[in-house]
Specification:
2 copies of one chain form a homodimer. Chain A is mainly alpha-helical. Helices cover 63% and strands 3% of the residues of chain A. The termini of chain A are far apart.
Chain lengths: 498, 498
């Protein structure tokens, strides 16, 4: 190893440690912090973030990266580490600090205004600050890459390499298949009894069942913990401290359980990172879309499927008496219940979810190209909602104001949810092609060889490969929507006897 | 406010935030961290500490302090803030980094070796690394103040301003009164039945009773929390996040409860700090001895006294059935039970505790003056234990190896425990002189006006005054042992009918 590379890794390790500290402070804030400490926590977090920013923009770090960028003695992992660090440094150095401050302050104000506007169901209260947030995001994009479309630069924050030019045809193809499929589900006569989904299950019972399933998925409690929180998340501090949270809705045991499986999918990705490189950028999860692929693979491909429940349904029946006489097939229809009349993205099922995302993507894209004005968002929202799902939200609170993302200035994030679903289907298809015994093993309650395949092809790879290269190496081809489309078509055709 | 002073407070606020971050990381490590995260936590902590050290030794900070040290426009609080910051800077800049590293590494090794030696009950296993630790502490003292006795410099770490010249006569006076008093207690015939102290009380019952008492003392749960841990402590991050822990020993409910009161005393001090200056050194608790005075005042003066139990004993009787027929007087003798045959400092009662401390002080003093060699410690220990308490520890594990302090290089800490007891007695005496109704109010379950007196005279003062000035302002005289001695003499003469 060269002296320069050794110095680089030391500097990057310090940055990783500081990011991990932010992870612990944030977890603490959500889960255990006394309410009176909020102001002090704000100061602690911003101090650590300022320190991290100073180190990330330190001239010596830029100098080391410049030296190493074309160093032929680096191996591929080291070169990838340099590439990842360079991307972080570019963003940190190119965005002027007055813009960082304005973004931060406007996001805080935006969130406050959004909370009020949503309460009052009035988008126009939110419109002025949203306009500011869009302008600031445009300025930021221009600072990072003045020659690229702003929205492509924003997409890059969450899904490096992704562009509108690639998303447009993928989303067009999704609409082409999903819209008629949803219409057929809507027309299906045989709507099963679903009242049992709302049966009361005490949180403690749910916790016991949930913990057992989390453990069976391979989550390592010696390198993590499970707590409850209003908004479930996967946080913590690096691969040896991966903390998940969940919420036990006592009148929606199934959603609580699959939500927990979702967070466990994120956690398995984090715990599966290359421990020998845990303090370096190259071991980091590749992107938001790939992260979401891991949560959705476990939540949807696995825990919405027959094989998984062949293993776990008997336990569930034993714990929840009201399931004792319910056949597995009926239960699976409940797990996969499609509700095209739902307005809310986070409550959406597997089939309609992509349309909630596409709607948001198209609005963001048109906002940043200048084709759409902020004040016209509610109209654009309703038109698209009618076009895609045939429904009209009664007010802004369950329409254009339902998501928190824009209030914090996060534009370009939404596509990752559906990219995650597409990656998940493509990964699962490839894993089963390589290990055809996966479903049979899941039906026995065993996560191997599925978990092993994910470890080798996704978790351990980290950011060694860029996204496309990772997907090609894992599945033999670039991302496309066909694995997802054939999976949902087959599944819902069967479940709804279309 | 001058520009220089404004810049100083900003730099000090950043340092405070970093210290608070260390507080949260440490609490997390003890209470919620998964075991597998230990190595990562070590890296996170050391990164934050290195950052803090860099900022504390930054030339600009020294420059600002030099400018402000003789600035006549500063008010007394500002001047005190400069003084406190200067002391931190002096220590950080005068100790060379190679020595800091050697101290840190040797302390880690020292702790490991001590654990093994204590297990094997063999001091000589520990002697070599203890010798290294003593040498390093001498080097450190010489770096900070080459013209002062090393042990005085070490005392200053915990109790600024304290010296051997002041401790020697105070401790001599304690021995003069306590030794004959203990002999009379030992000779007392009327030893009460104490088996009820070991009655089994489930942890959950203890928690309910404990929480109620903690609340009644004025502890604010919106700015803190109460958890359980093997070694109880008061930690957290500044006055709005004061976290206490306790241990519920199911066969020693009373010790668990008074231990909890002790930590609550520390916590009240932290919560009582001047919130408008919470991010500045001037609001910090004055010293270890003053901190211990707050825990001991509540634990001993208050929760070992009749007035407090007049208020709380009926609740306790209601919760713990076996106390129902036990008169308050018998209960109070249990609370104040003296056991001169106890070898262990942390298990010692109020009367014998100072002798455990004096023994350690004398050994440390003689070690650093060169009068005593490390290898002769067990002999010195046993001789003094025989001289003071008339007992000989059967082995090193319950003798010279019982405390963790030396294994981490903490020399000069022990005297603070007894200084705390002396300050506590002197403060309580002064508070009652000013508010004679304090005992009657305590007997009604009210902590006012005692808490108000402490807030005004100790908590809010913080480090505005140096220790002696604080004590004089609060009590009208310098620290002396007479308040403590008359208090214990009166109390134990009465309890043991001497």
């Amino acid at each position: 190893m060269t002296t320069a590379y050794a110095e680089l890794t030391q500097r990057l390790a310090d940055l990783t440690a500081l990011e991990e500290v932010v992870g612990i402070l944030s977890w603490d804030q959500e889960i255990v912090m006394p309410s009176g400490a909020a102001d002090a926590r704000g100061r602690q977090l911003s101090t650590v973030q300022v320190v991290a920013h100073e180190r990330l923009t330190h001239p010596r770090l830029a100098e080391l990266l410049a030296t190493l960028r074309h160093d032929p003695t680096l191996d591929t992992t080291q070169a990838a580490n340099v590439r990842e660090a360079q991307r972080d440094v570019n963003k940190a150095t190119r965005v002027p600090s007055h813009l960082v401050r304005a973004l931060g302050e406007t996001a805080v104000r935006g969130h406050e205004v959004w909370v009020g506007a949503r309460k009052n169901k009035d988008f126009q209260e939110f419109a002025p600050v949203l306009t500011e947030l869009v302008d600031l995001a445009k300025q930021r994009a221009a600072a990072i890459a003045p020659d690229r479309p702003a929205y492509d630069v924003l997409l890059d924050d969450y899904e490096p390499g992704m562009t509108m030019a690639r998303l447009d045809p993928i989303f067009a193809r999704l609409k082409e298949v999903l819209l008629p499929l949803i219409a057929r589900v809507r027309a299906a006569k045989d709507v099963p009894d679903m009242t049992w989904l709302a049966q009361h299950v005490p949180a403690e019972n749910q916790r016991q069942v949930g913990e057992k399933i989390v453990r069976s998925m391979g989550y390592d409690f010696s390198r993590g913990r499970l707590d409850t929180s209003v908004h479930p998340f996967c946080g913590g501090a690096g691969p040896t401290d991966v903390r998940i949270t969940t919420r036990y809705n006592e009148n929606a045991f199934l959603g609580s359980l699959t939500g927990l499986v979702h967070e466990t999918g994120h956690a398995l990705y984090e715990q599966g990172r290359d421990l020998s490189l845990a303090d370096q950028p190259v071991s980091r999860p590749r992107s938001m879309g790939i992260h979401e692929s891991q949560s959705l693979l476990w939540e949807k491909q696995v825990a919405h499927g027959r094989a998984f429940w062949q293993a776990h349904y008997p336990e569930l029946q034993q714990s929840y008496g009201f399931l004792q006489d319910k056949p597995l097939d009926d239960f699976l229809r409940g797990v996969n219940y499609v509700n095209p009349n739902n307005f809310i993205r986070v409550a959406a099922d597997e089939l309609t979810y992509p349309l909630h995302v596409i709607l948001r993507y198209e609005i963001e894209r048109d906002l940043f190209s200048g084709q759409l004005d902020v004040r016209d968002l509610p109209t654009a929202w309703k038109e698209r909602m009618r076009g895609y799902l045939g429904i009209t939200p009664p007010d802004d609170a369950v329409g254009v104001l339902q998501d928190v993302h824009w209030s914090g200035g996060a534009f370009g994030y939404f596509p990752c949810y559906t990219l995650g679903a597409l990656y998940a289907a493509q990964f699962y298809q490839a894993a089963v092609a390589e290990h055809p015994e996966i479903p049979a093993r899941l039906a026995e309650g065993a996560v191997e060889p599925l978990l092993g395949w994910l470890r080798r092809n996704v978790h351990q790879v980290g950011s060694r490969l860029e996204t496309d290269a990772l997907v090609v190496a894992a599945t033999g081809r670039m991302l496309d929507p066909e694995a997802f489309l054939s999976y949902v078509t087959a599944k819902f055709t069967r479940l709804y006897q279309l």
